[in-house]
Amino acid sequence: MTDDLGMEPGPFIERFLLDLVKQQALIHANAAPGGQTEALLHASHRLKSSSRTIGAERLGQLAATLEQLVGQGDGGCFTPERLAELDQEVALLHEALHGRIG
Fold it and tell me: Domain of 21: which CATH number?
């Protein structure tokens, strides 16, 4: 990974995990009624892209689905079940990657 990134993997993973938590928080904050659709689109898109970049395909697919639904005007797509699924995937990825830097 050092050759591909031009840096040690630890700092890259730490930055990725910080951004992951930030996007998750933005989704939660804007998924409630009255939340900003544009913020949901941006956070879902960023989560999709960064997850796929690092190889977290399941989280990437979940974020892609949410991004698509929000883009189609389905702001209600962030059901408690979908948010719980998102949280579970983020937690699994966080645990897996945190073990690589610890």
Answer: 1.20.120
